[in-house]
Amino acid sequence: MESTFGLILYMGFFFALMYFLLVRPQKKKTKQLNELRSSVRSGDTVVTIGGIVGKVLNVKEDDFVLEVGAARTKLTFKKWAISAVEKSETEVVDPAVAE
């Protein structure tokens, strides 16, 4: 009986440890990234997950229009494709660094 209780306590400890080391930080990072993506406004400079850098022209509910290159090509992306946002010349908001 005591060995079963000890085993359950031992397993419970490791489940709690895994939760606090893996699950909780990932949820926090996902929440920060979703807040970053929802705060994108026209005029911001963004970096997509593919590495494309450009200026946001128009933001809709689920997508945005990005102006890139010297030819000022306009591309439409989904909001989930944003990996970093530059709000101004000096401030870069990157969720991987912003911890």
From TrEMBL:
Domain of life where this protein originates: Bacteria
Regions that span the bilayer: 6-23
One Pfam entry name: YajC
Organism: Fusibacter tunisiensis
Residues spanning the signal sequence: none
PANTHER family per UniProt: SEC TRANSLOCON ACCESSORY COMPLEX SUBUNIT YAJC
Record NCBIfam families: yajC
InterPro entries: Preprotein_translocase_YajC (IPR003849)
Sorted UniProt keywords: Cell membrane, Membrane, Protein transport, Translocation, Transmembrane, Transmembrane helix, Transport
Family of the protein in this entry: Belongs to the YajC family.
Location(s), subcellular: Cell membrane
Membrane topology: Single-pass membrane protein
Protein name, as recorded: Preprotein translocase subunit YajC
